[in-house]
Every structure is written in C-alpha cells, then in structure tokens.
Amino acid sequence: MIALIHLGLSIKDFIYDPKNQLLWQIVNFVVFVAILVYLLRNKIGIGKVFNDRAASIRKELDKAKIEKAEAERKLAEVEARLSKLDEEVALMREDAEREAEREATRIREAAAQEAEKIRQMTAREIAGALKEARAELRAFVAENSVAMAEAIIKRELKPEDNRRLLSKYVDELREVAK
User: Fold this and answer.
1) Distances from the Cα of 153 to the Cαs of 112, 133, 138, 140, 145, in angstroms?
2) DSSP 8
C-alpha cells in the first residue's frame, strides 16, 4: 500500500484500473483454490476418501494379480494335461491294436481247433459209416452166398444124397446125446 501511495494512486484506483483486472482475477482464483483445498482436506476429508479408494484399488489389483496367477497356473495345468492327452490317446490306440491282434490270434487258434475237431469227427463218422457198410456188405454177401449155395444144393442134391445126409446128422445127434 505504501508503494501505491508513493506512486500517487489510491487503492480504489488500483483496484478498479482495467490494466490490473487480470491480476485481480488471478488473486481471486488463488484464494478460491486455497479455500477449496482447505475445505476439501480438513472439513470434507477428501484425502481420506482418496486414500481409502486408492487402498481399495490396490486391494483389487492385488486380488486380480492372485486370480491371474491362479488362472495362469490352471491354464498351464490344462495345457499339460492336453499335451499328455495326445500321448494317452496314442497309448490307448496302441493297446487297442495289440488287444485286437491278440483277439484275432485267439480267434484264429479257436477256429483252427474247431476245424480240427470237425475233421476228427468227420473222420470218425466216415470210419463208422465204412465199418457199417462193410458189415452190411458181409451180411449181403453171406445171405447171397447162402442163397446161392442153397440154390446149388437144391439143384445138385438128389433124394438119396438128402437121405444119406439126414441119417448122418441123426447119428451125430445120438452120439452127442450119449
């Protein structure tokens, strides 16, 4: 103020001078900001709100980091299982192929055994049929031989030969009866 008086200006002239208007706007703005900071900091506690919000955000970020690490661990686990899955499928396929080969071998062996049993059974049936046919042939030959012999005997045998044979037979029976 002393400087203003020394320059020959009154306070009123200094305040209302259009050249100083920008200065007063800056002063007003600084005072406004100072009051606003004072009120926000001390009365409203905006610093505490911001600090609480920052702490909450930090907690959320930490939680997100933990969840991300867990998700990455699970992803790695799943990828490892997937990579092993190809190996497991290949092993299963190989096992199935080996089992199919064993089963095919077993079936072939069983079929060969069954075929051998059928051959043996057929051979027995053929041998039995052959034996039966031979027996029938012998019986047929015997019957026909007897019939032919009988026919020959009837044709060749004379009544005196018949009497002589009959008397010889009766004599043999008497000797047996004694």
Assistant:
1) 60, 29, 21, 19, 12
2) T
